[in-house]
Amino acid sequence: MVSPPKQLVKVQIITELLSVLDNQFSRSNLQNFAFISDSILGVSNAVTTRSVARYGSLSYRTVQRFYALKHVDWLMINLLLFKHFVHKEGQKYLLAADETVRPKAGKCTHRLGRFYSSLAKQVIKSVRFLAISNIDIEKKKSCILGCNQLIVNNLDTNAKSET
User: Fold this and answer.
1) What confidence category does residue 4 fall into, taking pLDDT thresholds of 50, 70 and 90?
2) C-beta separation of 86 from 62 below 8 A
3) Domains in the chain, number
4) pLDDT higher than 60, residue 155
5) How far is CA 10 from CA 16, 25, 50, 64, 147, in A?
6) Alpha-carbon distances of 43 from 9, 50, 107, rounded to whole Å
7) pLDDT tens, residue by residue, 105-148
8) Residue 1: inside a domain, yes or no?
9) Are residues 22 and 80 in the same domain?
10) In Å, how far from its chain's centre is CA 115?
11) 29, 107: one domain
12) Is 36 part of a structural domain of the chain?
């Protein structure tokens, strides 16, 4: 049996993605999503915002603007994609949340604070994130639904002076 050409498979994947997400984007944003999806599937090395812009027909700034859209519910989009492409009826899934810290050296990093790192086994200057994943128990595979940077509050910044 002869497999279909890669370009045809890519078109089928993008068409299916667009049909699932049709109600989540405006027409122009849906068109940008199609261009970005095509670029992501075509990039042979690391997929970054810059490599997507270089491979595709959109400018680097347009790709950045697309990912920074405020009115788009990215968690809902990830849930829709999970439900359509990954979810199997009768399969058991586990929802997990994990807070992680990323060390940073800069002074001007947005939401920079001092947080405990279990890897460093001490409080370090860092930013922290909360990731939510859906885990397939049988396959032992995780599908990230969302990841957000956590906000530094007054208790976190005063923690150093209290100890």
Assistant:
1) low
2) no
3) 2
4) no
5) 10, 21, 21, 23, 27
6) 15, 11, 34
7) 777 777 777 888 888 889 888 888 999 999 999 889 998 898 88
8) no
9) no
10) 23
11) no
12) yes
The answer on 152 and 108 residing in a single domain is: yes
Task: Give the tokens for residue 51.
Answer: 């490599």
Which is higher by pLDDT, 54 or 106? 54
Contacts of 104 (CB under 8 A, 6+ apart): 112, 125, 126, 127
Q: Is residue 157 part of a domain?
A: yes
CA–CA gap between residue 36 and residue 49 (Å, rounded) = 9
Within 8 A by CB and 6+ apart from 4, the residues are: none
Distance in angstroms between the alpha carbons of the first and the last residue of the chain: 69
> Which pLDDT belongs to residue 128?
87
Question: What six digits make up the tokens of 149?
Answer: 């940077």
C-alpha dihedral (104, 113, 127, 108), degrees to nearest 10: -60
3-state helix/strand/coil string of the chain: CCCCCHHHHHHHHHHHHHHHCCCCCCHHHHHHHHHHHHHHHHCCCCCCHHHHHHHCCCCHHHHHHHHCCCCCCHHHHHHHHHHHHHCCCCCCEEEEEEEEEEECCCCCCCCCEEEEECCCCEEEEEEEEEEEEEEECCCCEEEEEEEEECCCCHHHHHHHHHC
